[in-house]
């Protein structure tokens, strides 16, 4: 009996939708085994359906060719062809498509902490006949395949496992698919509750640029004691002689200054000098090196060096080793730490936040299953290796600001920290914070990562912003040459990214102005060029959180 007929109608597509999740997890890990798997057993609610892998492979190659009477696997082809056309095409594509297209990247990813976590989860869903995890077999088989060929398909990986039979837990796949569906439903429900908050309505227009497209930053190389090579910096001097802070801007993991140059140039155009740090080891070059197989993928283990980079920048600014930030008094008031994703986390930790005790135990619970609906938890759970179990004395120390350039605020686009600060949140920060999230973000879901952390904010000027239709990558500007972190489609970039960025610029500008004029960025429902954002203070944020049902 085919799998499609075993499952209740609402679950059929969920099962097929869940298969790529598992097989994508296998893709991160390949001498051929003495024997190869010949049977795949699909298990659901105690019922097992055996599938001949040789017959399945033959059907995937030629699904429309009728099997001769008595042929091995002929009955399987008959049943599989009873699948609805869309499900049949999805299954064939799933079986034939390469799980991994780059041998070197896969071999490096095998040795990474993230790859280890994904492999553990895959091993719980695909087991041997005695119900043991196949994680070690997946590791050795995929590594061996990758040493022999440039790409590996799901069928090739299954056939390479050195056991006669493996069992695929369909209920586990359904659970993974259910996690995605539940997270989307939860985010939609949270957004519906947010829309009910009594917020004043306000409209705005995109800010104009004054020829910033033609301007280029001043590129610097800062020698630092903790690195062999200098830290690249990009300085965007202020174009106005206005009093205010300077901004230290940090890209996300695998990012580059080019991705945030639209923001740096626009802020400098309005009188706030911006210094962008290109962190070696967790920048775009590091990501490209991992894709080429020259190094493991960068992760949260790079955070201490990022914080050391910040410390070195402040020391250079204090000692006068940086060029002027623009016409006086621009940048003389203090500094605002600003970053995207991991850069936002570095900004929060550089401002003084340290993980709360018990991080290791919280991560054990969070990683009981792979957090596919909140990938930031993989990064957060790398930190116990860096910070210990949330003990301040064992983690990276907060960055020491100079007396001439005190910390005035923090801005984090798509930041995260729900496992790091589950109880106190932003409570220990004495400066205003702007946390920005996107309604389509499943990397750092706003209800879990921004709202949960912001709920502890004490500073009256701190603000939480959620932008409808924005994703985790909305702040990243993609050029036409493809020299960016990823070549992303609309599904990942979000709706109208340029319009979202224009709105983010307005809100960021008002937050910076609010350091001098407290009521400028007040709680509101902001509409700009078809994009809507909700600006909350600590009271509205707590009210919103109380209205969201517990999971």
Keywords:
551 residues, alpha/beta, 11-stranded mixed sheet, 4-stranded mixed sheet, 21 helices, 17 strands, globular, disordered N terminus
Helix content: 25-40%
Poorly predicted runs: 1-34, 480-491
Largest sheet: 11 strands, mixed
How many alpha or pi helices?
Answer: 21
Whole-number average pLDDT? Answer: 79
User: Which descriptor suits the 3D outline?
Assistant: globular
Strand order of the largest sheet: 7-16-17-15-14-13-12-10-11-9-8
Tell me the β content.
Answer: 15-25%
Say how many strands there are.
17
Q: Alpha-carbon distance between the termini?
A: 36 Å
Overall structural class, as computed from helix and strand content, comes to: alpha/beta
Q: What's the gyration radius in Å?
A: 26 Å
Secondary-structure map with pairings?
Layout: H1 3-6, H2 9-26, E1 39-44, E2 47-52, H3 53-61, H4 74-80, H5 85-96, E3 98-100, H6 103-110, H7 113-125, E4 126-128, H8 135-148, E5 152-153, H9 154-160, E6 165-169, H10 170-195, E7 201-203, E8 218-222, E9 231-236, E10 246-250, H11 261-269, E11 274-277, H12 284-291, H13 303-318, E12 335-340, H14 342-350, H15 359-366, H16 376-380, H17 384-387, E13 407-413, E14 433-438, H18 446-454, E15 463-467, H19 490-493, H20 497-513, E16 524-528, E17 531-536, H21 538-547
Helix pairs in contact: 2-5, 2-7, 2-10, 6-8, 7-8, 13-14, 18-21
């Amino acid at each position: 009996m085919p799998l499609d007929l075993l499952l209740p109608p609402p679950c059929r597509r969920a099962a097929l939708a869940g298969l790529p999740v598992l097989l994508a997890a296998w893709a991160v890990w390949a001498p051929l085994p003495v024997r190869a798997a010949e049977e795949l057993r699909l298990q659901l609610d105690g019922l097992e359906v055996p599938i001949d892998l040789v017959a399945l492979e033959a059907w995937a190659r030629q699904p429309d060719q009728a099997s001769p009477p008595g042929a091995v696997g002929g009955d399987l082809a008959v049943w599989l062809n009873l699948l609805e056309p869309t499900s049949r095409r999805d299954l064939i594509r799933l079986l034939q498509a390469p799980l991994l297209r780059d041998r070197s990247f896969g071999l490096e990813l095998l040795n990474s902490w993230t790859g280890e976590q994904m492999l553990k989860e895959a091993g719980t869903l695909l087991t041997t006949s005695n119900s043991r995890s196949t994680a070690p077999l997946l590791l050795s088989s995929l590594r061996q395949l990758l040493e022999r060929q440039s790409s590996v398909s799901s069928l090739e990986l299954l056939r390479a496992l050195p056991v006669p039979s493996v069992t695929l837990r369909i209920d586990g796949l359904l659970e993974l698919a259910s996690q995605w569906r539940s997270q989307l439903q939860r985010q939609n429900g949270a957004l519906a509750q947010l829309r009910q908050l009594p917020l004043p309505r306000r409209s705005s227009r995109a800010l104009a640029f004054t020829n910033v497209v033609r301007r280029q930053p001043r590129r610097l190389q800062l020698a630092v004691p903790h690195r062999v090579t200098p830290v690249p910096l990009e300085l965007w001097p202020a174009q106005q002689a206005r009093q205010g802070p300077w901004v230290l801007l940090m890209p996300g993991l695998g990012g580059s200054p080019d991705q945030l140059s639209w923001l740096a140039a626009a802020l400098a155009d309005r009188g706030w000098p911006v210094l962008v740090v290109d962190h070696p080891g967790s920048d775009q070059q590091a990501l490209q090196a991992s894709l080429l197989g020259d190094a493991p993928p960068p992760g949260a283990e790079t955070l201490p060096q990022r914080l050391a980079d910040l410390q070195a920048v402040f020391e250079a600014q204090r000692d006068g080793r940086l060029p002027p930030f623009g016409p006086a008094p621009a940048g003389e008031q203090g500094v605002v730490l600003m970053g995207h994703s991991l850069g936002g986390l570095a900004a929060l930790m550089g401002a003084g936040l340290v993980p709360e005790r018990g991080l290791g135990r919280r991560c054990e619970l969070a990683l009981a299953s792979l957090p596919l609906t909140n990938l930031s938890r993989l990064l957060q759970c790398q930190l116990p290796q860096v910070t210990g179990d949330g003990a301040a004395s064992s983690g990276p120390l907060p960055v020491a600001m100079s007396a001439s350039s005190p910390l005035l605020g923090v801005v984090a686009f798509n930041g995260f920290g729900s496992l790091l600060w589950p109880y106190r949140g932003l409570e220990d920060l004495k400066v205003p914070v702007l946390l920005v999230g996107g309604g389509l973000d499943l990397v750092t879901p706003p209800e879990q990562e921004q709202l949960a952390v912001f709920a502890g904010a004490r500073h009256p000027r701190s603000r939480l912003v959620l932008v409808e239709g924005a994703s985790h990558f909305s702040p990243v500007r993609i050029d036409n040459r493809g020299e960016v972190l990823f070549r992303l489609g609309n599904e990942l970039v979000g709706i109208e990214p340029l319009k979202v960025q224009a709105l983010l610029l307005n809100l960021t500008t008002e937050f910076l102005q609010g350091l001098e004029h407290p009521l400028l960025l007040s709680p509101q429902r902001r509409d700009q060029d078809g994009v809507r954002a909700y600006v909350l203070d600590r009271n509205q944020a707590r009210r919103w959180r109380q209205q969201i049902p517990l999971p």
